[in-house]
Write a structure and sequence with these properties.
globular, 4-stranded mixed sheet, 10 strands, 15% strand, alpha+beta, 13 helices
């Protein structure tokens, strides 16, 4: 179990995770297919109907993995690291280690997903055509064909974070050569799409008086719209952060004050130190030597009743596994590395000595200061 979810395996070297919300939607989709097969009135026993529902739901989520793998394979072709693929309540998402370096790369990575879904739709429809009078195979293949076709069309809607939003950004980026501006335009487009989905979903839910008909579908559409709206706003914030940090070095965003703790102290004492200083990350030292890094997240790996008998050394990230930055490294390059390795704090080392640390808080302070300066300049 990780923050990404429950890892179920690897494909092409990419870890595949199931978010806890996935189990809810998997059950709902399996029940939906159960009802669809039951409506065929083939006098099948309930156990077989359940098996058909579960199998079809698994094939549906297999289609989502295929869709995300298409993105990931193209990303890896361009030497972009793929951190993971996670299936969750809205479908699937690929997490890459850095943004594409060129508009063409972004376009090819984004278009690969819808094209893969169209490929699957064609394959399932071919199976349906060959199924003849086999009602079960006909229904299974036909349903999955239309689902994949709909998935492709839905993802081509031009708004972040959908594939169509990335395609739109790639096209704009290719014309104006300005990544941040293209991101803002695509993010705003995503917000327009999201507000439209929320309005359409609310209207559908309110206009349909059936408690299990369009009302549920309308609420689901509005919920998806809300998710897209949140992601689009996040993408816009990331574009503004990209603008603010462009041209800065690690030395410009690091915190020079070094907060250290001894490796021998207990987690209970560390929790008190964390509350006292308000810092979520501390360098761990033995004498004057750096031996590791401990963060607030490490506390969650140990039950609280064991904090008083567990030392910091037992849960720290040791020095030999510690990623670090150089003061002259570009800030945007560091952020890409931090995202790739899943770290929110990274020490800064110069001439063999720790001279500072980059944390989420130190980055936010720089962004806030630049935002305030920008607001003053506009007055």
């Amino acid at each position: 179990m990780r923050r990404d979810g429950i890892q179920i395996g690897r494909i092409y070297g990419i870890p595949i995770f199931l978010h806890t919300s996935w189990f809810l939607i998997f059950g709902l989709i399996a029940f939906s297919f159960y009802s669809e097969f039951d409506a065929l009135q083939l006098n099948l026993p309930p156990s077989r109907l359940v098996g058909l529902g579960v199998m079809t739901s698994a094939l549906f989520f297999g289609s989502l993995v295929f869709h995300e793998m298409a993105h990931s394979v193209i990303a890896k072709y361009y030497k972009i690291p793929v951190v993971s693929i996670t299936l969750f309540v809205f479908g699937g998402v690929s997490r890459i280690g850095r943004e594409p370096g060129r508009a063409l790369e972004e376009f090819n990575i984004a278009i690969a997903g819808p094209l893969s879904s169209l490929f699957l739709a064609g394959g399932f429809w071919l199976v349906e055509w060959q199924a003849g009078s086999n009602a079960i195979l006909n229904t299974l293949a036909g349903s999955l064909g239309w689902i994949n076709f709909s998935l492709a069309l839905f993802n081509l809607i031009p708004g972040f974070p959908l594939d169509g939003g990335h395609i739109l950004r790639a096209i704009i980026w290719g014309f104006n050569k300005n990544y941040a501006r293209a991101t803002r335009i695509a993010a705003r487009s995503g917000q327009v799409v999201a507000y439209g989905m929320i309005a359409a979903g609310a209207a559908t839910a309110l206009s349909n008086y059936s408690p299990l008909g369009g009302s549920v579908g309308g609420l689901w559409l509005a919920f998806i719209g809300w998710f897209i709206l949140s992601a689009a706003k996040q993408s816009q914030a990331q574009a503004e952060a990209h603008d603010a940090l462009d041209g800065l070095r690690v030395a410009d965003i690091m915190t020079p004050e070094l907060h250290t703790v001894g490796r021998e102290i207990s987690l209970e004492d560390y929790a008190r130190e964390m509350v006292r200083t308000g810092r979520r990350a501390h360098l761990v030292v033995a004498g004057n030597q750096l031996v590791g890094l401990v963060t607030a997240e490490a506390l969650t790996s140990v039950p609280q009743h064991d904090w008083d008998v567990t030392s910091v050394q037992a849960v720290m990230l040791p020095k030999d596994k510690l990623h670090w930055a150089a003061p002259e490294e570009p800030a945007l390059s560091l952020l890409d590395r931090m995202r790739t390795v899943g770290m929110q704090q990274m020490p800064v080392i110069a001439a063999g000595s720790v001279v500072g640390i980059v944390t989420r808080d130190s980055i936010m302070r720089v962004l806030q200061s630049r935002h305030e300066l920008g607001s003053l300049a506009e007055r």
